[in-house]
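Complex record, two chains
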Amino acid sequence: MKVHPLKNEWYFFSIYYAAAQWGTLLNKGIKPFSENYGRNCWSRSIIHFGSNRGNYIGITCEVPNAKKEAFLNYFEEYFSTFLMKYPSRAEVNQNKMELYMDFPANSLCHSLHNFLPEFNHTFEQEDYHTVWHDSTTAMLKVLGPTELDGSDLFTAALYLNLLILLFNPDFAKTYLKKCSPKFETAFDFPAEYVTAFRVSESLLLEAMNDCKNILQGTIIDSLRPIADWIAVFNNFTLTRASYIEVEDFKEHDLLTNVLFSIRQQLGINNQTLLDYFLYRLLVKASY
Amino acid sequence: MNRTYHLKETLIKNIEDNLEYEDLEHVVLNYNSKDDLEEWIVENLLHYVASGRLKYYKTLEPSSFNMTHSKNMVCKLAMGDIVCLIDADNFSGQGYAKYVNEHFQRMPVSFLTTIGIRKVKNPIDVLGRVCFMKKDFIRVGGFDEFMKGYGFDDYDFVNRLGLAGLSRKLIASQRYLSAISHSKEERSENMPVHINFQSLFVRHILPFKSELLFLFKDNTFSLGIVVNNYTRQLMRIKYLIKRRSIRYSDKLTKDDWIRGCWSDGDGYLQLFLNDGRLLKTFQFSDDKRILSTSGLKKYFAVENNSTLITQLLLFHSVISNRNRMEFNLRQKKVKLNDGKFGVGTVYRNFETSTPISL
């Protein structure tokens, strides 16, 4: 067989920046780049947040090979200039006991965090990649123009996970069954999670209420961005429901993949806490 | 050394798999092992010792394992025209001796190896396997005894055989290349650096560059700057445009570690080079977990991370040998050791009244 060079290639970048100032990087750096240049150059792009070897925002983008060199040169120039103009404050290296240090704030690297969710099935992987591109577009509208903090991302993950579960009751029941041994019977379950739930209970119940309203179609303006965001995933999973007839397709596996990839996209470290909140909310709602 | 548990699985099988080949001896060198090697041989292999099929020697001198020296000793003790080195954890496979003989009948000016020129395709467990004419071993001066630690001694040896004009032939058949798998940690646990290790300090310089200070119980130290080539490339977007291939992920910035002796006192640590010159002075933090220089460089003790420590001790061994191999190759060195290799005193079989000087 003959070798055909790929038309497009995926590139992965990480911009190390203090987490408390991610809003600045997003709104003054990434969004303008995306709107003024990126869109004309890349076919798709996915943004994610992370904390591996330092706090960073990751940009995954698909670029045609014909534009590769120009894009990469401009990307480096643009973000190097941005980091000089809007440097974030330094962050403490958390990695003292490791061989190499964290990446310092205001540094740029590639190919370290290859965030590109995949789900192995007969439907085109390309469609799934497009979902995450659309998720990014929706996410940027949700996150808004202000500075972010970890709780904003955690809240977004909570809303989306809850919406996925409420939209798919059978899946929610399976999810609860998996969580139950961890949260009901484990002796070493951390007490601070129980405290955290109690302290946040009113906000969590408000979130539950918001999600129910979204599902029922009663969407107030402030919830529109989240509603649009979850629609990206619901539309995708709904259209794939027809694949249930195909033997190897497991709808719950797809939903699990979506659930956890959302958490990865939002850089959620404490997944157990998120699971605990979801579990308690669903149990309260008698699932 | 101390690998009788492997030999118990392989040696009898290797002898029996090659019994049909008449002019063959299996030479086992007990490199001052502290396990039950001798007892096991007495109990299980006396008939082979009596017939001359198995030649058992021991040396009582080494306090720790020296790969190149031990290989040189055992090769010097081998009396045949062709020497086949087989690690204790390797199975020769049935008819190996016949296969080797047939090869050297066809190609006498060659050697057999599991290490390819460009790419190593064989698993690490069998990379020590090599067969050569005894006279060629003597011609190149054996294994390079500058290499004290683990790794790359076999690469260097076959490189020099190649530079000596011998053709490299890969041992192709998997039937001769079976081995007991084990971890890198197991490979290196008898090495001096492991036995002698006291503490490790790390100074972070860049995300891909750190300085390591190893302190050993015998008051020696090793100091060096390590670079991770992959991470360095990750910080340069231009490598996405033109990718550079990387041969080794980690390297020392110099050819070898800076070595010398250390001494400590009340709240300080000093490093001295081998010629007696003072290299550095550090202040200890109160808890002795941080070393600081007058230039405010900080070195943190690596603790509670035995995996990292083991990996770095292995790296400590491997990198010196690797750099030496590269040096020998660049300099096109063929013969090494200045004629002095595999030197020591051994005893045949189970008595110690008749020393044999090598």
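Note: Chain B has twelve helices and 19 strands.
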